[in-house]
Write a structure and sequence with these properties.
Layout (H helix, E strand, L loop, with lengths): L1 H24 L17 E4 L4 E14 L2 E8 L4 E7 L4 E10 L5 H28 L10 H37 L7 E9 L7 E10 L2 E11 L7 E12 L9 E5 L29 H7 L12 E6 L2 E3 L6 E3 L8 E13 L2 E5 L8 E8 L9 E7 L2 E8 L5 E8 L3 E18 L2 E14 L5 E8 L9 E7 L3 E3 L4 E8 L4 E13 L10
Parallel strand pairs: 1-10, 8-17, 15-22
Antiparallel strand pairs: 1-2, 2-3, 2-7, 3-6, 4-7, 5-6, 8-9, 9-14, 10-13, 11-14, 12-13, 15-16, 16-19, 17-18, 20-21, 21-26, 22-25, 23-26, 24-25
């Protein structure tokens, strides 16, 4: 029985010991590092679609099939390679898969974590195998053996279970950290360049460029106002979210951001214009010329000349087709980074805007700014904040000489809407015409310690039939934007005071006209 017990106790553990020994003896090292590796670009031109990387390298000259050759290592996704070898001509270029080293800091960290994760998974497997031994009691045991088995099992579980839990926790943590690191490309591209003539020099200067889609940038804005400090200032910060997954860290790289993006390469086809002749029924002047006279372009509003530039981090160039910014930073680790392009103060008055419906409304903070001629502000996501508190996020884009910014509603400026009980819609008949009448009083309350300038807007009915008419009764008199069909009032509300605006209208239409207007 002792012999049997000896087999039971020592056989499985001997097998596990040999298994563990074999597992931990296996090689976890990477391929032997080659002297060839990725070379950090000297310049990078980044757009939102990718980048063009320019590299200068002193390439080692080797011999292949009796000819002088140069070898360059590129990322696997590199495209549109252009090579210039100083003092030599190229007769052939060949490309081969090539194992890459982990040359960037984050990539080396990712490889280290991957190795640790692999070892932790092996440890977890061994622990599970050892725990599985104790899932069933061996046969043909005496009572004494069973008691000894139970005692040993309890001791083993108390030792192994905490270890198993610790290893599982380590695996979860390693996986979470690996998710935040860029994936390391295992294979790159080796380009072998064959020269036209034999070269005695050991190295040759080479300039080459290639495009890479795994890099680029996007614009990100932060607009901030502080009405309690200034009602005529908007602070704008333009940030660049820059990323690169080239497989290396960029050092000493001149980084330029451009606004150019891919679009249609060719213009649309010119539409055909066919004139069909018809019988002339009378003489009259053509309205062709007058139609073009009426379509004269509108004059653009003058740009706001008052701008206080508080900080500029990048050098802007708008002389070309696309605007560009040369960043002061010359190092960019693999992954994503945030860089300041510029910070400015726009001198523009803040405005409180109310657009009530028939029963309620809120008052929102806004600002309008005239974009100076030559300024370029790329499209990007934006964060808006008031007095240091974020009020919302949105998309910022410039589509004309003026931009409008909204900063959410102001809880300290309220709007009360009072409906006139006598004017709530259908009123009756006036002769042979049917009438509808509405009336509201808008009361603005300012709880700030300083006056505020409020603009209140209401839609103006658009008449598409001559038989329908509209009569307004406003106090004070409303301003009218006929192009946008808006009636608006601009009033100054004193600190701690209220201001009332009355707005009423009557719509009249013939009795036999199927017409049922509703006030928005």
């Amino acid at each position: 029985m002792k012999k049997q017990g000896h087999v039971i106790w020592n056989g499985p553990f001997l097998c596990l010991f040999l298994l563990a020994l074999g597992v931990f003896v296996f090689s976890t090292s990477r391929a032997v590092a080659s002297e060839l590796s990725l070379v950090s670009p000297s310049a990078a031109l980044l757009s939102q679609e990718g980048g063009v990387l320019r590299v200068h390298e002193e390439a080692k000259v080797s011999e292949h099939n009796g000819q002088s050759c140069l070898s360059l290592v590129l990322p696997a996704q590199a495209e549109n390679l252009r090579i210039e070898v100083e003092g030599a001509s190229i007769v052939q270029e060949e490309s081969f898969p090539y194992p890459l080293q982990a040359v960037s800091g984050r990539a080396r960290r990712a490889c280290e974590l991957a190795d640790r994760l692999e070892a932790a998974n092996v440890s977890l497997t061994l622990l599970k195998e050892r725990l599985a031994i104790w899932n069933s009691v061996p046969k043909d045991l005496t009572c004494a053996d069973i008691e000894a088995w139970d005692s040993k099992k309890l001791h083993v579980l108390e030792t192994l279970l905490p270890k198993k839990n610790a290893v599982e926790r380590e695996i979860r943590e390693l996986k979470e950290e690996l998710k935040k690191l860029p994936a390391q490309e295992r294979l790159g591209k080796l380009v072998r360049v064959t020269l036209a003539e034999k070269v005695k020099a050991a190295h040759l200067p080479v300039n080459y460029s290639y495009t890479l889609k795994k890099c680029g940038w996007r614009a990100h804005y932060a607009f901030a106002i502080a009405p309690e400090k200034s009602k005529k200032r908007v602070v704008v910060r333009l940030m660049a979210q820059v990323w690169q997954e080239s497989g290396m860290d960029w050092t000493g790289t001149e980084i330029t951001l451009v606004t150019g993006t891919k679009g249609k390469l060719t213009p649309p086809a010119l539409a055909s214009w066919v004139l069909e002749a018809s019988e002339v029924r009378g003489k009259g002047s053509s309205n062709f010329d007058t139609a073009y006279e009426d379509a004269a372009p509108m004059a653009m509003a003058p740009a706001n000349a008052r701008r206080a530039e508080s900080h500029t981090a990048a050098r802007q160039d708008t002389s070309g087709v696309y605007a560009s910014w040369l960043l002061p930073a010359r190092n960019l680790e693999q992954g994503e980074s945030s860089m300041l392009i510029c910070q400015k103060e726009w001198e523009t008055p803040l405005l409180w805007l109310a657009r009530p419906n028939i029963s309620q409304g809120q008052v929102f903070l806004m600002a309008r700014h005239e974009i100076a001629q030559g300024e370029v502000w790329p499209d990007g996501d934006a964060i808006f904040s008031v007095s240091g508190q974020e009020t919302g996020r949105g998309r910022f884009s410039v589509r004309g000489p003026q931009v409008t910014l909204y900063f959410g509603y102001d809880p300290r400026v309220s709007l009360e809407v009072v409906q006139d009980k006598r004017k709530r819609g259908e009123s009756g008949f006036l002769g042979r015409d049917k009438t509808w009448t509405w009336g509201w009083t808008y009361i603005l309350h300012n709880n700030h310690s300083e006056p505020v300038h409020v603009r209140l807007e209401r839609p103006e009915p658009q008449i598409v039939q001559d038989k329908i008419s509209v009569h307004f009764e406003d106090n004070p008199k409303a301003n009218v934007d006929s192009k946008k069909h808006i009636r608006f009032w601009e009033v100054d509300v004193a600190a701690g005071a209220s201001q009332s605006i009355s707005h009423g209208l009557t719509i009249k239409a013939p009795e036999n006209l199927s017409f049922f207007p509703k006030a928005p």
